[in-house]
């Protein structure tokens, strides 16, 4: 085979291989593309380390008043959490933590349900959200609780609100 013919054959096979590979490759949609990216360039998911920490992102905290009522303390994944002056959670198991939200399950009690919930707090799911930077750290600033409360207690229950920050 002449050198020119060999080069043409090799080029044709290479181009055919690229064409076949491109046909099978999924194209990224507009929602998958980062701003300014070319068509077909997909957004890369941020790597998440154990515990919900994203490398390169500041750690995320909640200002917890449990055991530190005067000024609170930065906390991560607390088992006991004071949400407001009216509601707190205990026995919290965190399913996720950061970088934009945290979700967990535990026992809910508060001044709005006394005396019924003092000995038997309610099962509840809690979501912390709206991270704001404060003194070089991210802090959750909102909470929302979902729980099957008795109908009579729902109007007074403190199920969503603003979390304190330093």
Q: What's this model, at a glance?
A:
The protein has helices at residues 3-24, 116-119, and strands at residues 60-64, 73-75, 81-82, 87-97, 102-110, 122-134, 137-146, 160-162.
Number of strands: 8
Unreliable runs, pLDDT <50, ≥5 residues? Answer: 3-52
Strand content: 25-35%
- Percent helix, as a range, is 10-25%
CA-based gyration radius: 26 Å
Structural class determined from secondary elements: alpha+beta
The assembly state of the depicted protein chains is single chain
- Mean pLDDT, all residues: 74
Largest sheet: 8 strands, mixed
Structural descriptors:
about 170 residues; alpha+beta; globular; disordered N terminus
Description:
This protein is α+β, with helices and mostly antiparallel strands. It has 2 domains: 3-32; 60-162, no CATH class. Helix content is 16%, strand content 34%. It has 2 helices and 8 strands. It has helices at 3-24, 116-119; strands at 60-64, 73-75, 81-82, 87-97, 102-110, 122-134, 137-146, 160-162. Strands 1, 2, 3, 4, 5, 6, 7 and 8 form an 8-stranded mixed sheet that branches. The chain starts with a helix and ends with a strand. The model is unreliable at 3-52 (pLDDT under 50).
């Amino acid at each position: 085979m002449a050198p020119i013919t060999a080069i043409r054959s090799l080029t044709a096979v290479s181009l055919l291989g690229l064409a076949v590979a491109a046909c099978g490759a999924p194209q990224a949609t507009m929602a998958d593309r980062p701003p300014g990216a070319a068509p077909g360039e997909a957004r890369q998911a941020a790597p998440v380390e154990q515990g919900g920490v994203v490398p390169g992102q500041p750690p995320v905290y909640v200002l917890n008043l449990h055991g530190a009522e005067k000024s609170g303390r930065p906390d991560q994944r607390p088992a006991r959490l004071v949400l407001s002056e009216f509601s707190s959670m205990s026995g919290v198991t965190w399913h996720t933590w950061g970088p934009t939200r945290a979700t967990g399950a535990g026992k809910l009690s508060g001044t709005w349900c006394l005396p019924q919930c003092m000995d038997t707090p309610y099962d509840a799911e809690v979501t912390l959200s709206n991270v704001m930077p404060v003194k070089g750290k991210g802090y959750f600033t909102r909470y929302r609780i979902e729980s099957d409360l008795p109908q009579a207690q729902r109007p007074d229950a403190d199920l969503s609100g603003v979390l304190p920050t330093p």
